[in-house]
């Protein structure tokens, strides 16, 4: 008689995958940045548990895919954050220059 080991999905595999997808979908907003960070943390925890006993779990592909998508989402979120800061700085300085122009004109 051979005993079959029933394999379970690795911990946090589905959550990491869903957060990775959300970080890509909402990458141009701050929500994508936050989802990406949480997705990377969950994927790393799940991969640690999976590597400790790989015969007990399945879903390493979901963990890896979730981690990769989360990293891409973090990059998109960081680019958006830098763009937002630069845009606010440019618009703020242009508005200040316009107010000075109005004061000198009147």
Summarize the structure.
It is built from three helices and two strands; from the N terminus they run E-H-H-E-H.
Helical amount: over 70%
Query: Care to count the β-strands?
Result: 2
Rg (C-alpha, Å): 23 Å
Secondary structure tally, helices: 3
| Terminus-to-terminus distance | 96 Å
Strand content bin: under 5%
- Taking all residues together, what is the mean pLDDT? 88
Low-confidence stretches: none
Biggest pleated sheet: 2 strands, parallel
Q: Strand arrangement, largest sheet?
A: 1-2
Shape: rod-shaped
Oligomeric description of these chains: single chain
Determine the structural class based on helices, strands and strand pairing.
mainly alpha
The ordered string of helix (H) and strand (E) elements is EHHEH
Which helices and strands, and how do they pair?
Layout (H helix, E strand, L loop, with lengths): L7 E2 L3 H13 L4 H23 L4 E2 L1 H46 L1
Helix pairs in contact: 1-2, 1-3, 2-3
Give a description of the structure.
With 106 residues, the protein is mainly alpha-helical. The protein has a domain at 8-77. Helix content is 77%, strand content 4%. It contains 3 helices and 2 strands. Strands 1-2 form a two-stranded parallel ribbon. Helix 1 packs antiparallel against helix 2 (30-52), helix 1 runs parallel beside helix 3 and helix 2 (30-52) runs antiparallel to helix 3. The longest helix has 46 residues, at 60-105. The chain is rod-shaped and about 85 Å long. The N and C termini lie far apart (96 Å). The mean pLDDT is 88.
Structure keywords:
mainly alpha, rod-shaped, 2 strands, 106 residues, two-stranded parallel ribbon, 3 helices
């Amino acid at each position: 008689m051979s005993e079959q080991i029933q394999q379970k999905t690795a911990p946090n595999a589905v959550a990491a995958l869903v957060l990775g997808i959300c970080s890509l979908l909402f990458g141009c907003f701050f929500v994508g940045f936050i989802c990406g960070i949480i997705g990377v943390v969950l994927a790393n925890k799940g991969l640690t548990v999976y590597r400790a006993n790989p015969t007990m779990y399945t879903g390493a592909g979901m963990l890896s895919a979730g981690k990769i998508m989360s990293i891409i989402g973090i990059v998109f979120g960081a680019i958006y954050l830098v763009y937002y800061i630069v845009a606010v700085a440019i618009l703020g300085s242009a508005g200040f220059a316009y107010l000075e122009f109005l004061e000198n004109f009147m």
